[in-house]
Amino acid sequence: MTEPSAAVAAPVSVSARADGVVTVWPVFAVEAVTSIGSTLLMVGIFFYTKHRFGWGLRENFLLAAAQGVAYVSGALSAGWAARRLGRRRLLLAVLSAACAVPLVGLVAPSAAYLVSVLMAYTILIACVWPVLESLATSGVDALTVARRVGVYNLMWSSVVALVFAAAGTVIEYWPSGMFILPAASHAAGALLLLGYRESASAGDDPVGAAHPHVAPEPELLRARTLALWLSRIALPATYVVAYSLSAMMPLLPVLEPLDTSTRTAVASVWMGVRWVAFVVLGATAWWHTRPRVLLAAAAAMLVAFIGVATRASDLPGFGNVPYAVDLAAMIGWQVALGLVMGTIYAGSLYFGMVLSDGSTEHGGYHEALIGAGGILGPGVGALTQWLWPNDLAAGVVAVGSLVAVTVAAAGVATVRARSRDA
Asked: So what CATH class is 22-195+216-421?
């Protein structure tokens, strides 16, 4: 499938099934199976490195930051590659490569070798998500975009929560499964795509569709545009937290008494709650015109992150807190974290795709912002571990400060937008 000439509008096949399950369900199915592999090798991997190599905070932070760099490069290349190969052909090529790379990691003779494999894998997977987001949302009206974004978020978030909860069991009882399962999941994704045909004949985003993209009313457009910018400020902060927590979780003192299987199950609570947030947001539309919800969510995320990463017994005046209370408090903060992170993620994806008519390029920006968070958060965390080795508190303060700066920037953006509209 090739990119049509810019001078000629690509013909688009419009039929009753173009917006229906028959056309879109393979995209969601590929999304779900791809999430199996990406969860194990991009989130669960930090529990694996601690279990196999005895890695500490510095090594895990450095791995997370390196993955962030790889993620940005893969996400930003997706639009360019899709224009030249076509979305389906690109996905087939990338998923086929992603079948082989984890199997190379299976026989990695050293930690350094494994890191190289993980970088190649991360680039491939980061290229997948913008294309799937575009296939799911391009060429339809805003209402359909909202519905499809809701389904998209439910699919990947449910798989991520379940797979991460089970990752500890895989690490403990079948370490090879950390690489075999991703390879199998990506093979399944490639097979699902073999029978899939896009409703549009264009190589990337539909051009000249029979149903024109209808711009929203000026007031609604202003609200959506503000929300888009707020989410683009807050989304990197969300993944500053997510990537930093991924690196920290295996080493949090509150989880130390637990075995690896139980650790990932407990550490996955916020992911399960994020799925609940997606359910609520997908069933409602009130937040579509209330950009400041994203600002409030970002501020709450800062507090929740500190709560998850800090034991009550480590705070002044709480010296003799029972372990059960520490664990319950950590789980409670995860509940809050999952709700606000789900709000920011859903807002960012919805506003970006509805304002760009489902563009692969904008999907790439969305994913690149995720990668940027993966660079910044673990990057500052790793720096603290050079200065104060094995000091978890220093990492929490550094990452929390970065999130605080982001929240302040989002607040400034909101004030300026209100003053322009006044």
From this structure: mainly alpha
